[in-house]
Amino acid sequence: MAINKNWPLVFASPPKVTEAEETAEILAGVLNLNKNFISEKLQKDTLYSPIKKKLTEEEVTALENLNLAGIYLNFEQGRYYPQESLASQVIGFLGATGKGQYGLEEYYDETLVDSGKGSDLALTLDYNIQFTAEKLLREAKESLDIESGQIIVMEPNSGKILALANFPNFNPNQYTEYATAGFLEIFQNGVTQKLFEPGSIFKPITFAIALEEGKITPQTTYIDEGVVKIGGWSIYNYDLKVWGEKTMTEVLEKSINTGAVFVERKLPHKVFLDYLTRFGIFEPTGID
Predict the structure, then answer these.
(1) Which ranges carry the Penicillin-binding protein dimerisation domain (predicted)?
(2) Confidence class of residue 116 from pLDDT cuts 50, 70 and 90?
């Protein structure tokens, strides 16, 4: 997901630059940078003035062919993310100063700084499951026009996270483009860093409690009228659907909101709260 790589960079040694104005103009065209920005670099009172890092192969070739006086190529080690946007919010990125930003890069920054000594980080993510989860979110964007979404896949027995997908995501190799555009929110992991109501994913928990308490069976029926009143508020089903008579299995399969209310109302509040506590709902997840 993340490896170290030697990246080409170009720097100037200002005392050795013979034609500063012409050199700045040429470099601006080759590197797609502002000419004034480069001129400032060429006028610095130093022997080493970095101009651009992480050059493309085309930029390196062009600079080698130009062979401009006082302009040199070098390499520096930096992070590279070969899977690009895959699990980007989980991974985070290494910033320009070499410090981890967001995700695991930030959380394990001190450990990864010493990665050259063998302190690599192995993840529980399954590549194929993660890829599929992100593909499903992209398809949801196309079919449902979602603004954002998350998918979590966990191994029940161990708690290992096999997939933690976010939409939209980003390419950490190009994080500066998002930062420059002011799109910083995309770096956050919606699963671990944002607050949201659990919504329909809470229905299986409610049903599990009611089943355990013997308040319902999979065959228990409920007649849906499309709306239910709670404290003066009207709760509707998705897309204002009215389903009629359905079993509890069907209520869960169709994610019928009014049916979930029907089930919860069969449970004393204290019993419901006690189960949620025992499920660990109010405890920190312990995720990195």
Answers:
(1) 3-109
(2) low
